Amino acid sequence: MKNPVEILKIATIIASSLLCISVSFIFLNENLFAVFPHLYYIPIILSSYWYLKKGLFYSLILSTIYLISVFSYTTYYNEMFIHALIRYCVFIGISLVVVILAGKEAELLTTVSKSDSRFRELMTNISSGVCILKKGKKDSEYIIDKTNLSAGQIEGFLTEEAEGKTIAELKTKYSFSHLIPEINSVFISEKPLKIPVGYYNNIKNPGWRDYYIYKLSSGEIVITFNDVTELKNTEIKLAESEERFNLALKSTNLGVWDWNYSTGNIEINDQYSKIYGYTPEEINNDPELLRKNIFPEDKELLNKSFLKHLSKKSDYYEAEFRNITKEGHLIWVHIIGKIVKWESGRPLRIIGIIMDITERKRDQEALKTANKKLNLLSGITRHDILNQITGATLFLELLRDECQENSRAAENLDIIFSAVEKIQEQIEFTKDYQNLGLKEPVWQNVREISCKSFSLLGYENIDFIPCRNSFEILADAMLEKIFYNLFENSFRHGGNITEIRVSCFTDNYGKGKIIVEDDGRGIPEEIKDEIFDRGFGENTGLGLFLTREILDISGITITENGIPGKGVRFEITVPERNWRELK
Description:
Layout: H1 4-29, H2 41-71, H3 79-125, E1 129-135, E2 142-147, H4 149-155, H5 159-162, H6 180-189, E3 193-200, E4 207-215, E5 221-227, H7 229-252, E6 254-260, E7 266-268, H8 270-276, H9 280-285, H10 289-292, H11 296-310, E8 317-324, E9 330-343, E10 346-356, H12 358-402, H13 407-432, E11 442-445, H14 446-457, E12 463-465, E13 471-475, H15 479-493, E14 499-506, E15 512-518, H16 543-552, E16 557-560, E17 569-574, E18 579-581
Parallel strand pairs: 12-14
Antiparallel strand pairs: 1-2, 1-5, 3-4, 4-5, 6-7, 6-10, 8-9, 9-10, 11-13, 13-18, 14-15, 15-17, 16-17
Helix pairs in contact: 1-2, 2-3, 12-13, 14-15, 15-16
Keywords: Kinase, Membrane, Phosphoprotein, Transferase, Transmembrane, Transmembrane helix
Domain PAS: 241-313
InterPro entries: HATPase_C_sf, HATPase_dom, His_kinase_dom, HisK_dim/P_dom, PAC, PAS, PAS-assoc_C, PAS-like_dom_sf
């Protein structure tokens, strides 16, 4: 259904056309040819302007009707017919010109409409605040002509509240109210102005803002702005965090380096320079300078760790090695590095930290020397004590033979004899643990170590089921003694056990788990928390205590969580850094 405007247009064209035709026949009957043709311009122009190509076709029909009507009252060679033919061509030409001009006008209106639509869409959706100002009659008076939704959200006003008001009327509730001098400057100079980020606190919505002001060719002033409070607060926190980080680095004496592997450029901090004595310029001029001064036997260790990380088999690379400083001093350093950026499968950027551990290494050597001396002293002392105990035992045996008739004395001698044997057992027990913690932890195969420990016990009536997977654990060299103690504990206190099992797996957090369990009578709930205490138990009271202490040297923990009556279950938890599975 056509709208009323369309109906009115069509009616106007038809009415004017009928009027032209009617007047034509009336004038032709009166032999008047001079005035009535001008009436045809009305429907021809209107139809061509309103309906373009359809209007041109309609004008052609109407002009043909005019020509036929004139021809019916004259001949081909009559002068009036020739005038009518010329006027027919004029009608068609005028219609064509009107169609072309109207088409251009329609295109222009469409373009303007699209531009206006884009402008409105931009104003609605842009995240920046936008205010368009018109110059008022007074100096420094600017009227807010248009604002977008974002401007209201940033400053805390409704669009209709601000539009039509001068900036002065808004007083100082909004941040752009403080920019009159800057707006004046842009209006006069017609040069855009970018205002640095600033904090506005005496406004409705305090915060950080950035502004850009420019003048349109129409004389209007446009202000675009953003609320950068969140970004600025992030920058402040980042700066504070960086300051704390730098302070932490200084307090821990950590050297930091950032190596662009493709260009060879290395950025280092002051502590890095202090460790080696070289300036950043010297290191950048020769990126291989520090590697050249690494001890040859240590360089292989570093290369091995780096190649493993390069092949993505480890999260980072790490090594301790000896190096020579610029002054020629020998130092020990601990380095940890990580490739943080790759390009086409090749490392592009590597960052890391380095620490001078020379003092620690000296302390370790001094401690090893002291331990060796203590072990030597302990061995000599233990040997002397055992000799004395052997002598005492011999005399006790002789004394027991002489006191057989005195039951009271014989009973006391048995107590003394038992105490001496206990002392002898404990002294001999310390021999097995005299090397505890003396050596660096080493990687050991859990399956091989547990099988070896079980074979030393010689339990022929007990089935042993070792773990199936090939797991390795970085632990003290006395790991074998741990399994020995756990298996012996099952044999001594488990009752009629028939099976001992060892299983290994990696949990969801990347930690290693070693489970040692049997099918014996288990451990009562009331003493589970005491079995690892020193002195608890029927023999020396040191077995499980030392088991826990040996594991603790490498940061490994052990607990017992078996069900009483169904066997013991010792669970050993290994940190991720001390655990690996051999493929």
